[in-house]
Amino acid sequence: MYQIKVDASSHFDTTLYSDAYINNWAIAELKEKCTFVPEYKSPLRIMPLGDSITYGIKGISDIDSGGYRTELWQKFVADDLPVKFVGSRCDGPNELSDKMHEGHPGWTMKQVSASASQWFDAAQPDLILLMIGTNDTRKSSLKTMIEDLNTLIDIITQHCPKAQLLVASIPPIHPAAKPAIRSLRAIYFNAAIPSVVSSKIAQGKKVHFVDMRSLSVQDLTASLSLDLDRGLHPNAQGYRKIANFWHDAVFRVISNNKHLTLTSSRPS
């Protein structure tokens, strides 16, 4: 079953519709400010996975904002989509009700791969939001970064074969604030991710590319600030955009997978 929520002067049509009425034509006919919400018996278990950008650092003076996780959580609440963030870490501000995540500041893909199995065994996620690679741009070659991403995706899909893995491009790195080679590696790494994801899909794995390459240097901490973090992490605007990208991607995945297997239940 699905719930169509129509925003009309703060009033909602919460009529339940059967699968038969939810097709491409019906969705296309929905007007603006409508939300297509699959009905589940238990919360979707979502694991935000990555480095300090998943943790939510905006700079050395702001390390506890929750980053994109705060706004993404609030969007799911507004959608009435039952969601539970999962992970071994618990960080974030008061307005982030569910603070669990797997954002590890400073970590590379190799480090995440080395610990991933224990996290997944404990958390049992239904969806995994992976954004990783920024720290790899410091020392790793592009070839190594692509190999490490391939390995990490294989580890995740091996331990969570029923979960949907959403792999995002990483934010840009400001070339005026960090070594230019890091900025170039980020650009070329992002360009390579779609092919990596496509190869995994061809192997039958439940992997999806989330294209965030429209993020710009204006979405980063100021390049000329005195903050040692300058030009690396997203600012408030950048995290807001990332939350929007993740939100839309999650809805695309669950809308296209009406029979998404949950850890404790199935959709009705």
Automatic annotation (TrEMBL):
What positions does the domain SGNH hydrolase-type esterase occupy? 49-240
Which SUPFAM superfamilies does this entry report, sorted A to Z?
SGNH hydrolase (SSF52266)
Superkingdom of origin: Bacteria
Molecular function (GO) terms listed?
phosphatidylcholine lysophospholipase activity
Family matches, as InterPro entries: Ester_Hydrolysis_Enzymes, SGNH_hydro, SGNH_hydro_sf
Q: What is this protein called?
A: SGNH hydrolase-type esterase domain-containing protein
